[in-house]
């Protein structure tokens, strides 16, 4: 499972936290998870204005980009959690071992 996750998702997932623009997109996209879609247009406008006023030469963030980012992010983390549940099942039921981690319950998205 680790090899699969590393090969497919690790570098992209880590890279997005070292790119200021992507961090801002991530923060705005989290408003979907928090059930505050109404704040997304305001947050996009504030972010774009901040970039402009502070001399960042970034492409403007769009609502479509934020939605796409959120869907991709939700997929990655849902897949990761489900793979951890499979790992827990194999370890505890098939191999009769202990699973050392507590996994979260259902996450509303």
Describe this structure in words.
- The chain has 109 residues and is mainly alpha-helical.
- Helix content is 68%, strand content 0%.
- It contains four helices and no strands.
- It has helices at 2-15, 20-33, 40-53, 63-94.
Q: Helices and strands in order, then pairings?
A:
Blueprint: H1 2-15, H2 20-33, H3 40-53, H4 63-94
**Helical run tally:** 4
Question: Any idea what the shape is?
Answer: elongated
Helix content: 55-70%
- The secondary structure category is mainly alpha
- Runs in which pLDDT lies below 50 for 5 or more consecutive residues are none
Strand content: under 5%
- Summed up, the domain count is 1
Whole-Å distance between the termini?
24 Å
Total DSSP E strands: 0
Radius of gyration using CA atoms only: 18 Å
What key phrases describe this protein's structure?
109 residues; mainly alpha; elongated
Summarize the structure.
With 109 residues, the chain is mainly alpha-helical. The protein is built from 4 helices and no strands.
